[in-house]
């Protein structure tokens, strides 16, 4: 994954030399096929994931919590598509991003 860093240590200090000073990273908790854990995501990517969830929810007239669960718990779309494709996706317009995510959801059998 692009800038997602799994936390093998108890603190972020071990990552200090790998993170440029202009980037801010946020600790997140996650669950995957190996269980739960913690990691870090950049400020820009975290904001973009939130943007995607909120706009997809608005477009589909669904609660954002339901969209979040569909993109994280029911599938791996956030970790395996949105974050890795951030560089390309964040340059597109809102309508394109929403339609693209709806297509990815359909391809992966996720219906809301």
Describe this structure in words.
The structure is a single chain. With 112 residues, the chain is of the alpha+beta class. Helix content is 46%, strand content 16%. The protein has 5 helices and 3 strands; from the N terminus they run E-E-E-H-H-H-H-H. The protein has a 3-stranded antiparallel β-sheet. Helix 1 (43-60) packs across helix 5 (94-107). It is globular and about 30 Å long. Residues 1-22 have low confidence and may be disordered.
Structural class: alpha+beta
End-to-end gap: 26 Å
Order of helices and strands: EEEHHHHH
Helix content: 40-55%
Tally of extended strands? 3
What fraction of the residues are assigned to beta strands by DSSP? 15-25%
Q: Can you tell me the overall shape? A: globular
Calculate Rg over CA atoms: 15 Å
Mean pLDDT: 77
- Unreliable sequence segments: 1-22
Count of DSSP-assigned helices: 5
How are strands sequenced across the largest beta sheet? 1-3-2
> Main sheet?
3 strands, antiparallel
Keywords:
alpha+beta, globular, disordered N terminus, single chain, 112 residues
Strand-helix topology:
Layout: E1 5-6, E2 25-32, E3 35-42, H1 43-60, H2 64-72, H3 77-82, H4 86-89, H5 94-107
Antiparallel strand pairs: 1-3, 2-3
Helix pairs in contact: 1-2, 1-5
Quick overview of this protein structure:
This protein has 112 residues and is α+β, with helices and mostly antiparallel strands. Helix content is 46%, strand content 16%.
């Amino acid at each position: 994954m692009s800038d997602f860093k799994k936390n093998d240590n108890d603190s972020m200090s071990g990552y200090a030399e790998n993170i440029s000073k202009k980037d801010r990273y946020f600790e997140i908790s996650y669950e995957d096929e190996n269980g739960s854990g913690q990691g870090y995501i950049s400020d820009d990517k975290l904001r973009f994931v939130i943007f995607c969830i909120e706009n997809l929810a608005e477009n589909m007239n669904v609660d954002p919590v339901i969209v979040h669960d569909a993109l994280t718990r029911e599938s791996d779309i956030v970790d395996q598509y949105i974050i890795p494709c951030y560089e390309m996706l964040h340059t597109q317009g809102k309508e394109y991003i929403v339609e693209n995510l709806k297509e990815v959801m359909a391809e992966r059998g996720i219906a809301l």
